[in-house]
Amino acid sequence: MLLEAIYHRPKLNWTYAYDYKTLHIRLRSKKNDLTEVYAFTGDKYMWDESKELVPMHLMISDEMFDYWECAIQPPLRRTRYGFLLKSGDEQIWMTESEFTKERPEGPERLFEFPFINPIDVFTPPEWVKDAIFYQIFPERFANGDRSNDPEGVLPWGGKPERDNFFGGDLQGVIDHLDHLSELGITGIYFTPLFEATTNHKYDTADYMKIDPHFGDVATIKKLVNACHERGIRVLFDAVFNHSGKTFAPFVDVMEKGEKSRYKDWFHIREYPLQVKDHVPTYDTFAFEPLMPKLNTENPEVKQYLLEVAEYWIKEVGIDGWRLDVANEVDHHFWRDFRKTVKAANPDAYILGEIWHESSAWLQGDQFDAVMNYPFTEAVLDFVVRGKLDAEGFANAIGKQLSRYPQQASEVAFNLLDSHDTPRLLTLCEGNKDKMKLAALFQFTYSGTPCIYYGDEIGLDGEQDPDCRKCMEWEPERQDQNLFKFYQKLIAIRKELAPLRTGALKFLSAESGGSKLAYERILNGERVLVLLNNYDAGQTFEISVDGQIWKDALSEQTYKAAEGKLSVKLSAYEYAVLTAAN
């Protein structure tokens, strides 16, 4: 055994309460090093009567490590534990302080999970596990009310620029809710709706006001109510890291300098406020002088923003918040933000925009989830860019699953493109077979999938601003076959519970290969997913129990022989198989 590779620590993603009764315990070891792992657990106050060895299963692997896991339900919600590690005939015990050949006589030197306190249990909203999100960039989705068009509005469908307007608004969304219902959408994530000067609205002028070019409070209430009647939840985008240049407190500071009562609302290094050598004399988003960074440590700023968070939940009934540039705001603010939001609506979904490893925000005291860009990059590297083979992709997914508690992975926000990236179809260079293959993994993986508006009908677009094109509403210019594909994919995800919350196990992911096979298992129900990421046909051989398997997408049936299922898939084809007997 390579003892140096074996790792565990209490709490975080290594030992955590999955629910009010259940602990998940994990351990890391060198890949393919250990053959068996057991958790040695018991109650410290009645050790001799309660101690037991609990088998741990191989949860997932990456390119360097195996990750072992078990679930236990301590009768009194507390436990001491160590590990028994085996590699063939060799075995060793692991305590909190050492590796030893002898079994620990008592619990004194073992790891400890002191108590499952219900208030500490990370409990994201249950509904998110089953949600299908759709991201809308309001200025470009549909123009339903020409009376509120901005000055100089352009004809619908023109070339998007960073500073032009086409008149999209909230009434336009209301007018096209049938499209979302027909597709199967159950959640909408809106980019910012608050008053601002830009087309993207990330430069907030008034956090308490819907932008007049989109509508007003009455319009958004009408929209949210219409969505709720259809079973669609609504997520608002909040920019609490920075405001816009027309935010009243910032205007006051610009005018009065150090004499402004709002000077401590921002991070100002030097007066007067100006730009020197392309760098503002105050902190901003990036180096954008029109987006001054808010001082969320300031009590007045914090109170104002928390009132904003509460107001839109109580006044309009929104179902959660997506939080822009979330990793640049202090943790203290987000902890108070969570308390405020959950007090207003315990079922609200709190989603942070973080592009990298995010475990510091996913411990149950801040966010429910983050925008899962590591997932995005892994899928694109495998299916689109060809940077990963099947083994490399499985390792990337395994590494991701090992980082977070299971409940965080179950509500992760899984996207393949957004208003901040080139569109999926463009990344695929127009190859819709590759696009479908990427979406197939997205919809058969843990977490909530999100479709960027227009992807479902074949909208393309390069990097911002081109990815923010006007939605295409002329039926003859929509790809109806692609729409039906997404419609079917959503229906299958809703029908097959293992695709949403089942355990993931890779069955085939070879080095240098392009065949990927994995299963999702929940309460004994098994779903097999096969992906051929290659420009020619390939045959999959999978060990199975049942004889007859049916593809939920094509409805084709396959018969196993002597415990082996053979499935040939053509170039970039896929299958989602369930046992028919």
Task: Walk me through what this model shows.
The chain is an alpha+beta fold and 581 residues long. Among the domains are: 3-120, Immunoglobulin-like, CATH 2.60.40.10; 242-295, Oligo-1,6-glucosidase, Domain 2 (Oligo-1,6-glucosidase, domain 2, Alpha-Beta Complex), CATH 3.90.400; 498-579, Golgi alpha-mannosidase II (Immunoglobulin-like). The chain is 24% helix and 26% strand. It is built from 14 helices and 29 strands. The strands form six sheets. Strands 1, 2, 3, 4, 5, 6, 7, 8 and 9 form a nine-stranded antiparallel sheet that branches. Strands 19-18-17-14-11-10-21-20 form an eight-stranded parallel sheet. Strands 22-23-24-29-26-27 form a six-stranded antiparallel sheet. Helix 8 runs antiparallel to helix 9 (390-403) and helix 8 (373-384) packs antiparallel against helix 12. The protein is globular, with a radius of gyration of 26 Å.
Question: What percentage of residues falls in helices of 4 or more residues?
Answer: 10-25%
For CATH, the homologous superfamily of the domain at 3-120 is named as Immunoglobulins
Name of the level-1 CATH class of the domain at 3-120: Mainly Beta
Shape: globular
End-to-end Cα distance = 43 Å
Domain Glycosyl hydrolase family 13 catalytic: 135-493
InterPro entries: GH, GH13_cat_dom, Glyco_hydro_13_lg-like_dom, Glyco_hydro_b, Ig-like_fold, Ig_E-set, Malt_amylase-like_C, O16G_dom_2
Protein name: Alpha-glycosidase
Pfam family, one: Malt_amylase_C
